[in-house]
């Protein structure tokens, strides 16, 4: 059943649209000293004649909260209430707390942290603090049988927690000698309760902890632990010692030469924990209000203390895998595993670029190129829908979409840097992500929610240069600025390879989003808009041909990104098809298998080569072990996806740490190609949500045997193939409710499905069950 929230956003029951109406007040501790000061709590003692069979706590906060009833933690969610554009929506959580209540006297405490609400966001040169407000606060109602037992009001007390300082980038300091006690009153804060909505996605959860795989002691006595995995996580400590002894935990993703502990790439993010012992026997600690991105932890002990155990605890909003892919090449399987870890590490409330440095922002470009892969690897539906609501809220009045969302610069513009919105390839997230939700989940509501924002984005694009060809300015932040094919490699700087120009990249995406929005308009029954946008897409197509193709059929910059996107999205004129194939092949061959694409070109490269039948080149480029290449980083020991192709040199030298993340999912978008082209499971727009698929595996001999699975709303699809002496044997398992199309083609000789021959040009449908398909190549 579809509902509509007060924010005008369609949702499902249990999400935005079925909000509880709070009668409680938002209250703030009167002892709150502001951002980067001692943590505070609000509390209340209350009595119950008897414990009800069911009792519900609904709770939210300005900042982050951790709630306790009678000293017992409420729930196991992390970083609640989550991260949204807090001036648009603030999530609340609902817990059954009957088991925590006692007959007679009870006590509730709500500990508060700065979180995204008011701790530093953005980098050191332009830090933003108190982005959404200066005061932390809590709102809560405890009810049973439809009656309120307790709610936040002016009768509550406040005091200080053992968390002496905290921040998303800062980390956390915790003094276990401090015992919370009621020392101050509270202030009832001015607050619009209409902002409160049920949590729109799964809360952040802990994954199983990881023990160290190695440890060593540095010359000064500090101990470094290697957990064997780079992840968005925190450390859990078990320790004992005397009161006042301290344990400091630093974090890093990589090591320099001679195991040098190197976290310069964190920039201004301190990203540390400092724990002061209480001295009362064995103690356990994990941070309440922060997380880090790391593989290594370095521990320094000051005073008399012993660290008994150290565990890495990964955290994520998408803890359950929805798909898997394996091949006959271990490095490929590791690449997929690395992508899963980067998705987990960066899908923490919003799809961030990285989990470690002073950034951790929801960059729209990263999210849109990875959206398809993310839906294959995890159930990302509610997570991405929540994110899109922030993208919509951050959209500017002129239609420009933010570079990242939630966007601190919308409320706090950066001097002399222009508006942080409007880049092609980034703003197109408002079109591409909803489309992926439609393909994977049949979610037409996502299309409907985002459609007005799509139209605003398209009008912005057309208006940049008042026509179909976009001519972006070169100056960062000016109207129409684009990131282009961000981090596109150029090879040897003495003779750099060609790269796509900004005008070509911007116009390519102008066409992609216009054509896709026209298709979406048809699906939604918006026939007038569909016809208008189809006409506009044709104008862009014609202008692109005139502007960027020579009479010989050569695209202007003759680079891998231009060719990949033009072929994949039908922008190569039919009369140039044959010549264009030749140019593209030559451009790909000239690099001897190394990649020449950046953020927007990489997801298109292998699909374009594959669908043009250039399987030899697709295989060579995918399996290339040199830089730039996917498997280069695997051979350098990566356990997650890197931001840069050359993040580590062959000798282990760390590339410029000023912008170098070792946990950045964007290049993991190649996993979408592995599922859809190599395993051959393609979702269909006319039967979305895997009601029907095309089974069309691309046989790359070196990858045999291939196996993939994906959990859909109907159940699990399994697909795989082996190649032996020129014969391909495929296994396809379809759950009830799913059918598959199989097409006879000239390059598949003696094609059979379950023993029945399929002629060239013939199409057959396969129903639920297990199928065996064979053919020769």
Describe the structure.
With 777 residues, this protein is an alpha+beta fold. Helix 4 packs parallel to helix 7 (444-464), helix 6 (429-441) packs antiparallel against helix 7 and helix 8 packs antiparallel against helix 9 (527-548). The radius of gyration is 27 Å and the shape is globular. The two termini are 49 Å apart.
Name the quaternary structure: single chain
Through-space gap between termini: 49 Å
The tally of strands reads 39
Tally of alpha and pi helices: 15
Judged by helices, strands and strand pairing, the structural class is: alpha+beta
- The global form is globular
Residues in helices, as a percent range: 10-25%
Q: Largest sheet at a glance?
A: 10 strands, mixed
Features of the shown structure:
single chain; alpha+beta; ten-stranded mixed sheet; seven-stranded antiparallel sheet; 39 strands; disordered N terminus
Topology:
Elements: E1 2-4, E2 10-12, E3 27-29, E4 40-48, E5 56-62, E6 64-69, E7 72-73, E8 90-96, E9 104-113, H1 115-118, E10 137-144, E11 147-151, E12 157-160, E13 163-167, E14 171-175, E15 186-188, E16 196-198, E17 205-206, E18 214-217, E19 223-241, E20 246-252, E21 254-255, E22 261-262, E23 272-276, E24 283-285, E25 292-302, E26 305-316, E27 323-326, H2 330-346, E28 347-348, E29 350-351, H3 364-377, H4 381-394, H5 408-411, H6 429-441, H7 444-464, H8 502-523, H9 527-548, H10 560-568, H11 577-590, H12 602-611, H13 615-623, H14 630-635, H15 670-678, E30 681-683, E31 692-695, E32 706-712, E33 715-724, E34 727-734, E35 739-743, E36 749-753, E37 756-757, E38 763-766, E39 769-776
Parallel strand pairs: 8-16, 14-23, 31-35
Antiparallel strand pairs: 1-2, 3-15, 4-9, 4-12, 5-8, 5-10, 6-7, 6-9, 10-11, 13-14, 17-26, 18-19, 19-24, 19-25, 19-26, 20-23, 20-25, 21-22, 27-32, 28-29, 30-31, 32-33, 33-34, 34-39, 35-38, 36-37, 36-39
Helix pairs in contact: 3-6, 3-15, 4-6, 4-7, 6-7, 7-8, 8-9, 10-12, 12-13, 12-15
């Amino acid at each position: 059943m579809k509902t509509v929230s007060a924010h005008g956003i369609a949702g499902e029951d249990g999400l935005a649209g079925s909000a509880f109406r709070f009668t409680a007040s938002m209250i703030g501790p009167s002892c709150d000293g502001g951002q980067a000061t001692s943590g505070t709590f609000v509390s209340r003692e209350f009595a119950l004649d008897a414990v009800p069979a069911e009792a519900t706590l609904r709770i939210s906060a300005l900042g982050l909260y951790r709630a306790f009833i009678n000293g017992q933690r409420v729930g196991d969610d992390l970083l609640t209430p989550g991260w949204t554009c807090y001036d648009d929506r603030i999530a609340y959580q609902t817990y059954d707390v009957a088991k925590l209540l006692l007959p007679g006297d009870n006590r509730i405490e709500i500990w508060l942290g700065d979180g995204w609400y008011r701790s530093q966001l953005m980098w050191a040169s332009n830090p933003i603090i108190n982005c959404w407000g200066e005061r932390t606060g809590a709102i809560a109602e405890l009810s049973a049988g439809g009656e309120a037992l307790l709610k936040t009001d002016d009768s509550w007390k406040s005091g200080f927690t053992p968390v002496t300082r905290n921040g998303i980038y800062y980390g956390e300091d915790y003094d276990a000698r401090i015992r919370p006690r009621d020392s101050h009153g509270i202030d009832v804060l001015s607050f619009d309760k209409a902002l409160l909505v049920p949590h729109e996605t799964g809360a952040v959860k802990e994954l199983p902890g990881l023990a160290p795989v190695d440890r060593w002691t540095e010359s000064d006595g500090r101990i470094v632990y290697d957990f064997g995995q780079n992840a968005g996580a925190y450390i859990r400590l078990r320790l004992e010692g005397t009161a006042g002894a301290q344990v400091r935990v630093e974090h890093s993703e990589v090591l320099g030469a001679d195991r040098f502990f190197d976290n310069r790439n964190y920039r201004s993010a301190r990203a540390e924990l400092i724990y002061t012992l209480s001295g009362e026997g064995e103690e356990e600690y994990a941070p309440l209000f922060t997380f880090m991105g790391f593989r290594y932890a370095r521990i320094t002990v000051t005073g008399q203390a012993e660290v008994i155990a150290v565990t890495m605890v990964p955290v994520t909003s998408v803890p359950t895998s929805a798909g898997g892919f394996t091949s006959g090449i271990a490095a490929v399987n590791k690449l997929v595993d690395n992508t899963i870890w980067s998705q987990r590490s960066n899908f923490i409330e919003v799809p961030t670029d990285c989990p470690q440095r002073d950034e951790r922002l929801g960059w729209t470009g990263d999210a849109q190129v990875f959206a398809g892969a993310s839906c294959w690897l995890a159930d990302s539906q509610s997570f991405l829908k929540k994110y899109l609501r922030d993208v919509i809220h951050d959209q500017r009045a002129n239609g420009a979409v933010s570079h990242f969302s939630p966007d601190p610069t919308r409320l706090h513009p950066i001097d002399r840097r222009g508006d942080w919105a409007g880049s092609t390839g980034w703003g197109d997230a408002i079109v591409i992500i909803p489309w992926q939700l439609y393909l994977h989940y049949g979610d037409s509501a996502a299309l409907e929610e985002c459609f007005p924002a799509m139209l605003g984005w398209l009008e912005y694009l057309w208006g940049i240069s008042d026509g179909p060809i976009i001519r972006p300015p070169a100056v960062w932040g000016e109207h129409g600025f684009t990131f282009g094919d961000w981090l596109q490699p150029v090879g040897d700087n003495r003779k750099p390879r060609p790269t796509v120009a900004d005008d070509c990249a911007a116009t390519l995406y102008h066409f992609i989003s216009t054509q896709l929005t026209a298709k979406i308009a048809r699906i939604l029954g918006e026939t007038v808009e569909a016809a208008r946008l189809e006409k506009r897409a044709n104008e862009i197509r014609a202008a692109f041909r005139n502007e960027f193709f020579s009479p010989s059929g050569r695209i202007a910059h003759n680079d891998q990104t231009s060719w990949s996107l033009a072929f994949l999205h039908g922008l190569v004129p039919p009369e140039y098809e044959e010549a264009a194939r030749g140019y593209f092949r030559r451009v790909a061959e000239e690099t001897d298998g190394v990649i020449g694409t950046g953020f927007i070109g990489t997801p298109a490269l292998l699909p374009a080569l594959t669908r043009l039948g250039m399987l030899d080149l697709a295989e060579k480029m995918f399996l290339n072990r040199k830089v730039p290449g996917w498997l280069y980083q695997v051979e350098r020991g990566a356990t997650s996806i890197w931001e840069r192709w050359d993040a580590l040199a062959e000798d282990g030298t760390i590339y410029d740490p000023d912008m170098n993340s070792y946990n950045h999912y964007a290049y993991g978008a190649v996993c979408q190609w592995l599922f859809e082209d190599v395993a051959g499971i393609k979702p269909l727009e006319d039967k979305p949500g895997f009601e029907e698929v095309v089974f069309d595996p691309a046989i790359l001999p070196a990858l045999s045997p291939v196996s993939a699975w994906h959990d859909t709303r109907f159940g699990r699809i399994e697909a795989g193939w082996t190649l032996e002496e020129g014969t391909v044997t495929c296994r396809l398992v379809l759950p009830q409710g799913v059918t598959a199309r199989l097409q006879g083609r000239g390059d598949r000789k003696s094609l059979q499905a379950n023993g029945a021959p399929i002629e060239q040009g013939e199409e057959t449908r396969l129903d639920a069950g297990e199928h065996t398909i064979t053919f020769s190549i």
